[in-house]
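Request: Give me one sample?
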Amino acid sequence: MGAQILNAVRPKTQRCAIYTRKSTEHNLDLEFNSLDAQREASEAYIKSQAHEGWRLIPDHYDDGGLSGASLDRPALQNLLTDVRAGKITVVVVYKVDRLTRSLADFAKLVELFDQYGVSFVSITQSFNTTSSWAGSPSMCFSPLPSSSAR
């Protein structure tokens, strides 16, 4: 009977994938770079959620030297393929703008995640679709540089 009670409260395993991105190739050749720092912080966050059944999958989704203005990035496309294949239940990023800099693209991605039952978490911002309140997406985006800004 004790084992039945234990199994009843054990949370469902959540397969977590970390996505990292850095816009420029500057310092990507360092032994420990921005992608590594994003991954390390995200791994620590996932470990802190182990009691909720969170487990890191072994695949890496890292786009170094690629802008967040476009969704045409190899690691992001691999992540989306794995989302569609049901390999991932939670996408974790350091900051929302690592996933995309476009609010319209972000809305498309969240809609895709929702379609496949995938939650999205930004570990440094109040954005977590695994809970009932996900925060305001517009607060998560920094403006793109403008050539007309003076």
